[in-house]
Amino acid sequence: MSPARTPRIIAFLCEWCAYAAADKAGASHQAYPQSLLTVRVPCTGRVEPAMVLQAFREGADGVLVGGCHPGDCHHVDGNVRAAARLTLLTRALEQLRIPRERLRVEWVGAAEGPRFAEVATRMTAELTALGPLDYQRRALDSIEDALDATPARLHQLEEARAAPRAPGKPRVAFYWNASCGGCEEAVLDLGDGFAALAAAVEIVLWPVALDAKKADIEAMPDGHIDVAFINGAIRLDEQDHWAVLLRRKARTVIAFGACAHLGGVVGLGNLSEPETILATAYRDQPSVSNPEQVLPGRPVQAGGHEITLPALLSRALPLAAAVPVDFTIPGCPPSPPVIQAAVDLLLGGGPLPPPGAVLSPNASLCDSCPRNGSRPERLQLTALASLATTQPDEVTCFLAQGLVCHGPATRQGCQPGCVEANMPCRGCFGPLDGVVDGGAAMLSAFASLFSGDEATQRALATSLPDPAGTFWRYGLAASLLPRRVPERLP
Amino acid sequence: MSASPPPGPAAAPPVPAPGRIGLVFCRCGPNLFNLVELGPLEAAAHWPEAAAVAVQGILCGEEGQAWLSGWLRSERLDRLVIAACSPREHELTFRAVLARAGLNPYLLAMVNLREQVEWIGGEPEEATVRAERLVRAGLARVARQEPRERREVDVNADVLVVGGGAAGIAAALSLARKDRKVVLLERSPALGGLAAQLDEIFPDHVCASCFMEPALDEVLHHERIEVVTQANVTRVRGGAGAFEVTAALAPRFVDPQRCIGCGECSPLCPVEAVDPWAAGLGTRKAIAAAYPGSLPHHAVLDPTLCLHHRDGSCQSCQVGCGFDAIRLDALPTTRTFTAGALVIATGFRPGEVQGPPGVISSWQLERLLHPGGPTEGKLALSGRAAPRRVLLGSSAGDADGALPPRELLKLARGLKARWPALEVTVAGGLGRAPGLGAEARAAAEAGVELLDDELLADGLEADGEAVKARLVNGLLETGRTFDLVVVHPATRPPAGVEGLAGLLRLDRDQRGFFTEGSANPFEPTATRVAGVFVAGAAAGPRPIREAIRDGAAAAGRVLATLVPGEKRELTALAAEIDPVTCGGCGTCVATCPYHAVVRDPATQRLQVEAGHCHACGSCAAGCPTGAASAPHATRAQLTAEISALLAATRGGRP
Questions:
Q1: ipTM
Q2: Do A22 and B116 count as a contact with CB atoms less than 8 A apart?
Q3: For B312-330, how does the pLDDT look when each residue is reduced to its tens digit (9 = 90+)?
Q4: Residue B225: how many CA atoms within 13 Å on its side-chain side?
Q5: Contacts of A468 (CB under 8 A, 6+ apart)
Q6: Terminus of chain A with fewer CB atoms < 10 Å: N or C?
Q7: Chain B positions in Cβ-Cβ contact with residue A23 (cut-off 8 Å)
Q8: DSSP conformation class of B30
Q9: Nearest by CB to A367, which of B116, B583, B645?
Q10: How many Å lie between the alpha carbon of B31 and the closest alpha carbon of chain A?
């Protein structure tokens, strides 16, 4: 891949203006680079932010969204809607170190052939100067090498699961990867249900409550554990080793809680370079004393022994990115009813849902929200509010108050805890089935509520702080662009 | 949603199965494959997605189309990718070929190799690789397309006019006389707008009531015009040929079927409040006709003044009405109207002036001069002696253009005609308004003092009983004293216009008036929203004759463009919302530019009304659960297309 190759630009062109302008440019034989990979759309308002992310993930160096000038939109204001959504997205992309030059929204009228050629030429030149984005190789591929280094990775997994089950009570494991530990407490929140569970099963592993050694687990035959509930993201090589080990030993693996499901808040670490995270934690904090500059991942001498702290992976992963996951119990933390229903389902012996299922209702939280009657039929936001400076009204739809509420994009199961406490939904239960990137979906939905002319809507999109952290608070590690582009090539 | 992947040729069943895709490269005579290399592209083995691959010379010609029809049949194809010119050139041509071949015309993707690859130049290899990506994307897209059916419905030739002033009634009458049904919505309780409250109009001092009242009478009695007063538009959806407009109707509290306008209720009312219809110069009761002679001539009750509505303490009017016409407990209602075109004639709102006693606005003077006004035509302000010296002025900040000098000249002549002894001075920026020579001369001959270049400075002060005004001409300033100072205040759009503009998606100028946004001067009063016309002062203040001309022009445009019996084609690509995954959040309602998404009250799920949808896909892009989809631009299609565009090419080129 020579650095001089022509940039690849996914160009979403509205069929009324920008696409027509491209035709005009060609018809008058205006020369411009062979860089545009055009997707003809009925209106720029059709372009989903997730499609822009997909383009970057799959190898685009830039994305051009070309529509009609404001005021000329064939569909009234689809172009302004696109500008609002993509302005917000541009700011999230900048947090991922994808500069705004790589996502251009341009208005080109149907008659403006020369201008179209100029826009394409200029953007191509800018991207040539920036060099290839190459997101897959720079941001994603490096982790595969680290994971592949895990010993005996999923070797003969199917055989292990098909082996005859040893008699006895159901054997259950709980394990804690990169998470805050709230999921461990959530198990106890089952209350009487926990007592019943403890009586019904044999808990073979629960490091937070019972003594256990890795060697004991390694000594078990494959498929010995019936259900392993694994919470937390995969952030360290050791966590990956445990995930693989438990995958081998357990017939059913459950991603338990938002961090295992989507990477969770741990995934927001993917907005920083691993080196920065280590430097901050092990060197730069005023409270740290580390004269030998010891960092995890390398052997150190301590008390006459050589020990090795687990190595930080280049990014946090949801559990399913490391090992096959049978089912997911979502939430930060999962609510007792959702856990109880899942336990009953898994141990009840009845038919199971298809593999990969998320064990909470596949319906949006909005649908069951106690406030949904207060939402105006046609919501039009002209100003945004911030939780830092606003005491939300206790009965009105949060979106109607100008606050970001993930309810529309988030599946049910929380009962809804945050809304009852007068806090907008943060999205911890994750998106509905079939939505590839819940953060992008919510970003698009929220910007769809903006009202006003282009400048007003762009200003609204610009006024919302931390779009990546707001819309991908729990889902960044499982998103289409799960990691900031590293400054150095791997 | 997505179609099953196309089976390979070996698996082809004896009857056409969904997903047999044909791929045709067209040479477009000498136009294509000079830069792009056909050699690497034309081999069938290169395109496992396609059941058949062919190259043609000129596919759009008669012979080419005949060949295509036969080929579709002989190869038992049901989907087609044509790599040739722009779809804007020939998509409809080839859809027709598919239809004639008995196939669904929407199972077609055109790959634009001519305008967007061949003709933009560059290196052959690069152009060829790019062509390959685009063709592959076309194959990916067409495999996921679904058959669609075209539908058309009759246009609705009825017209809704919003605003019952001079422009609105001009439009309504012109349309009704030409056999159109018209609904005329008016926000206030009375028709006629500002024009009906003037005594004389510019420039020829014609008596306004003399032409307004017969017109209003015809409007009120026309069998094809329905007048709905106290109506505020709350929702607009649909488009040209099929609008649906919902209005909130405030109660009149008087049954118009029973009220004969006798006025006996007013004296019974104990309330006395400032009368907005008398420009604040008189008082009114809580129940009365809007103003003397207002049409429709029924009493109307103002619940903000009425004691019954304040504390339930009074029913005097209801008890005393001899016709049992008063309904003190009437409730607001809503009504929905359908129409093929909308004429927006919402007019303007006169401004107000501040100042010591003896300062009034030109609009207040208009009402004083009106025989039906608060002083029945007398130039009298309560507690003040009859004026001797009158100044009519406007300020430099007044953005009404030629309106202030016209208005002030008209009023000056009217004053002089009635009270020749009155000293009348005009400082209204006459020098800024060309074309007023004749009116200015007539005023001067009548004895009006004309200060061509002077304008009124801000800050009128009391000077004993009189008013001291500062007149400025460039840097020169003179102070003069008058008994009455009449100021033309800058006009404003009426309250509620902002909401209406939002509902209609019409643009407004800096002052808030609708802009006459049609780019084409041959379509007067048209806006950029098809089927919506703006007439009269809704687009900025203007003389009444011009407003009436606008109304008639709007009616003419409607009659010329909205013809009964014509068909309106509905999009075959209307968006769809899956009721299973829809969470009822309403994002689609907010984002739909056409108000085509409605909530099913029983299920709380959202639905697209196909008759109103224009297939832009904004709902699908905004839907947070993936429930909304845009046929022919589905998520499955577009994401497959993106992947195909970016995947490594088969030649191994990245």
A1: 0.96
A2: yes
A3: 999 999 999 999 999 999 9
A4: 28
A5: A92, A95, A96, A268, A271, A439, A476
A6: N
A7: 86, 88-89, 112, 115-116
A8: T
A9: B583
A10: 11
